[in-house]
Amino acid sequence: SEVSGLILRQENSHSSLNLHQQTLLNQLREVTGTTDVQLLQQALQVSNGDLAEAVAFLTEKNAKVPQQDETTYYQTSQVASDRYISVGSQADTNVIDLTGDDKDDLQRAIALSLEESNRAFRETGITDEEQAISRVLEASIAENKASLKRTHTEVWSDSPNPHDRKRIDSCPVGLKNVGNTCWFSAVIQSLFNLLEFQRLVLNYSPPARVQDLPRNQKEHRNLPFMQELRNLFSLMVGSKRKYVDPSRAVEILKDAFKSSESQQQDVSEFTHKLLDWLEDAFQMKAEEDREGEKPKNPMVELFYGRFLAVGVLEGKKFENTEMFGQYPLQVNGFKDLHECLEAAMIEGEIESLHSAENSARSGQEHWFTELPPVLTFELSRFEFNQALGRPEKIHNKLEFPSMLYMDRYMDRNREITRIKREEIRRLKEHLTLLQQRLERYLSYGSGPKRFPLADVLQYAMEFASSKPVCTSPVEDIDSSAPPGGTTGSAPGLAPTTAPTAAQQQRVPIHKPFTQSRLPPDLPMHPAPRHITEEELRVLEGCLHRWRSEVENDTRDLQGSITRIHRTIELMYSDKSMMQVPYRLHAVLVHEGQANAGHYWAYIYDPHQRCWMKYNDISVTKSSWEELVRDSFGGYRNASAYCLMYINDKKPFLIEEEFDKETGQILSGLDKLPPDLKQYVKEDNELFDKEIEEWDSLQARKAQQEKLHPAPPPRPLPLIPQQDPEYMEQPSPTHDSKHLQEDTERAISKAVAEQEERSPEALLNAAIKLEYGRLLRFAQEDTSPENDYRLQHIIVYLIQNQAPKKILERTLLTQFADRNLAFDERCKSIMNVARAKLDLIKPEEVNMDEYETWHQDYRNFRETTIFMTTGLELFQKTNYVEALMYLIYSYQYNKELLAKGLYRGHDEELLGHYRRECLLKLNEQAAAMFESGEEPEVTTGLGIMNELVVPCIPLLLVHDAERDLLAVEDMRNRWCSYLGQEMESNLQEKLTDFLPKLLDCSTEIKSFHDPPKLPTYSTLELSERFSRVMAALSRAPGEGR
After folding, report:
1. Which of 295, 347, 486, 490 has the most CB atoms within 10 Å of its CB?
2. Over the stretch 535-575, which tens digit does the pLDDT of each residue have?
3. What whole-number distance in Å separates Cα of residue 778 and Cα of residue 667?
4. Which residues have C-beta within 8 Å of that of residue 8, sequence separation ≥ 6?
């Protein structure tokens, strides 16, 4: 079944026959759900290739097999090329119930499906998979059109300011998401950054005799697509835009097929088809250039390799050479890439492959005879859940290396690899025995509870050496009396005296179930009643010796296990098995579930020696650590679905092209052929014109504003309202993911602790747990750098004594987040929460009050961003930029504190840094004025007129002593220049400036607009706030 996703091309004389048989096998596999290759082959043999009879044979066999458990997962087959039928190709709006026991209905439905599929191919010449791809593309185009009417998180709207869309230097160009096409961007960017592939596409020219060629379906499809791909690549090379629009290439793909349905399919299908189309396009050119010779197709040479299938079928040995493109690997059950590869290279029982006996067992091994320069692995992370009737994503962790050595899988190393595999098998068997022996030491006992044997012996030694300390039953009555029992003395009585020796010697007679008095000689803690010094000495000696022996045995076993693990790890580390190195070039990542999600790519830049993240229009520097976090899986809903490795011994794959005359590296437009160079120049001219028109428009607006000034704005406008980043979003953001993880954690804990498993009971328990966690945060006395209000709105609401109904609705909204619907349990809890929200009557929760509280929290977050940014800039001595952030943060914070003590931050702290920033700027400006140099003087007075002077009324308005002193200091500094000798032009400027500085009015005449805020997630904001506050606490007294 592992071979199902390979692009098979038999190179023997029976290639067409094998291809037809493989197609039948895949059709059978899909419509019957059977994955056993031998069973499928048997069905074809029995039916002599008749599909209907083969289906009947398989359904009869399946009817005899006991029904699987409901929770059993079945692996969906991955489609590799147009030789195969897509998993989703049979999707239809007319659903036939195939769950009953009526075998005839099942056979009729399957036969009908096969007949329709074959008829469609005969009539149109288009395979089911091509129709599936068409549906993906049509969905993308439809999504793009629909985005004009609604907001979609994946569709980027262009900024009206072209300067925001201008490419900076030689930064990589992004691709605009034109509607659910992040998959297109991830794949295209990965291929574009293979410079050899880029060159092939850019320098492609259609066949010269294209008019003489038959205008078939492929030609209609491939040639226009190749031209659009060339255009797209040329823009990615030489455009002045930060990102470009790939709509025309996507439109070509959509127009290639005709389909009325819209259904999203696996992205791997698109990648397969893309390479197939490119292969066909280059094949036409290759055949024209190499008449009479066997043409070489550069796509085949770049992406396709060969392997030898060596096996036994019903006791008969065989060897076949087959071709492959993207190599599929199963993820489930494996911890790293090598384990996946080892499993994929061996099918069935292989003992008979190496033995001389004529065994009836069947199985095969794969050995690579030729690896492609670009080696691509498809990671199968989707399974079909038969019980739920839908595909589900596998989130298991799978590690992969940045450098992969393929020597162990090469045919030339077949014998040595078999020896090493046998050695590893033997070591693993020994390892299993050692682990079992170790487990007996670490989990000792015969009951349900087991403990480490060394600890058991230690406990026994502690017990033996304990001295019995007796107590009166009255002294221990509160803790030792059984519930409801009587003790013979009142709870309020004082303790009695210690029992006499005679009382200790007398053995009391107990009457179970009728008398609850505790024995008078009961010790305070477990201890032996009677043990002699000799007995204790012997027992302690034995227990010490036994414990020492057990600890030594345990250490020896652990040491042996560690050595075996290390031996297995180093099995292929000798130089002879490190001659075929493949370096990781790109990782394509999917985040989400099986039916929806987002795609992006990590691509290695060998020239900058760093990883880059290509996320639609955003192209940013990244790191191996970020790649690991997002790609290995197991951490969240993101994981790699495709790995692209390149042969490290073939540098031409990623080497830049050099000018033959100058020897300089070709870059930008110099890399392009004449036709594409002209195409990019024209597009750049259009963009330059757009910038020119924008600048002209802005200049006209500025002129109009001077002629017709607008009324003066309010000095400090209210914080603009925004959608809450800390609660539910239309689609997951960093904040909603952070909140979603908290919610899912509460649900998981509720499931573990709650006996009743109904969704309502679990919701109530989860809300109670989440509220308890947040209440502890709200009540905790923390240092200034740990402000839990930033982590959750509930903490803010609790500390500010928000009404109970506001808290309840906010928590319900958290659990009603649609992003929780990743499994049935969370989905049902989400639905209950939504139902409860709908049942809340208007008179129960005042929605105006609710919105006011949430708006206050949004204002608190924005104030924190102003404050954090301002303090960071202040610490970097960037006082010019820091000032506006500190001014606005102080003012907004004051408005918050007017409603309550815990609504904002420390007013004295913000006041101090606002004041200090103005003093620093005054000091800088005065130093520039003292220099006497014209540019310096102008800059210094500009700082005073544009920044310092407009802020002075803010310091005067509240009559705060320290603020008044600061203003006085600033004024005194400038007034001190009046008695000094200076040039006439400086004296003139000073005379013009001082009246503005000395104006005692508290009226704010003009003020800057609030600076643009950076966007922070909850986690980022908390971390930045914590860092800046910690830095302030470490600062010396003068700078604090």
Report:
1. 347
2. 889 998 999 999 999 999 999 999 999 999 999 989 998 88
3. 57
4. 18, 19, 22, 80, 83, 322, 323, 324
Q: DSSP for 247-306, please give it.
A: HHHHHHHHHTS--S------HHHHHHHHHHHHHHHHHHHHHHHTTTS----HHHHHH-EE
CATH topology of domain 1-57: Helicase, Ruva Protein; domain 3 (1.10.8)
The pair phi, psi for residue 919, each rounded to 5°, is -65, -40
Cα dist. 620→32, 236, 535, 731, 799 in Å? 46, 15, 74, 22, 39
The catalytic residue among 182, 642, 917, 951 is 182
Kindly report each contact of residues 830-834 with a partner whose C-beta sits within 8 Å and lies 24 or more positions away, as own/partner: 831/759, 832/759, 832/760, 832/763, 833/763
Contact at 8 Å (CB) between 568 and 428?
A: yes
Predicted TM-score (pTM) of the model is: 0.52
Q: To which H or E segment does residue 592 belong?
A: strand 581-593
Active-site position among 272, 366, 585, 598: 598
| Cβ neighbours of residue 782 closer than 8 Å, sequence gap 6 or more | 788
Instruction: Identify the bridge partners of residue 367 per DSSP, sorted by sequence position.
Output: 308
What CA–CA distance (Å, rounded) separates 747 from 763?
Answer: 7
% helix, strand, coil for the chain, step of 5: 55, 10, 35
- Sheet containing 305-313: which strands, arranged edge to edge? 316-324, 305-313, 363-370, 346-348
Told to judge if 826 belongs to the known catalytic residues of this protein, a careful annotator would answer no
590 counts as catalytic: yes
Neighbours of 101 (CB within 10 A): 7
Q: What pLDDT sits at residue 121?
A: 47
Among residues 272, 366, 585, 590, the one annotated as catalytic is 590
Q: According to DSSP H, which parts of 791-906 are helical?
A: 793-799, 804-815, 824-839, 847-875, 879-897
Contact 884, 1012 (CB under 8 A): no
- Rounded-to-integer distance, Cα 930 and Cα 941, Å: 11
Domains of the chain, residue spans: 1-57
pLDDT tens-place string over residues 465-488: 887 665 444 444 344 444 444 444
Annotated catalytic residue 182: yes
Contact status, residue 73 vs residue 388, Cβ threshold 8 Å: no
766 vs 553: CA distance, rounded Å: 45
Separation between Cα atoms, residue 282 and residue 298, nearest integer Å: 7
